[in-house]
Amino acid sequence: MTPNxxxxxxxxxxxxxxxxxxxxxxxxxxxxxxxxxxxxxxxALISAAVTGKIDMRVPAAASCPSA
Length: 67
Prior knowledge:
By secondary structure, the chain is mainly α. It is built from two helices and no strands.
């Protein structure tokens, strides 16, 4: 069933689209922040592995205290 858009005013439609695009922008910012954090984590992990700060010979599950 498709909604009858004729019963909505232009202002209501604009307000709805503004709210939805604001939510999309907020979510986009959260995703970009997560990507940045993961990239920094990846860089730190590679650096630690290369410099010998972590032992890469140990399986990941065995080196993780929560596992």
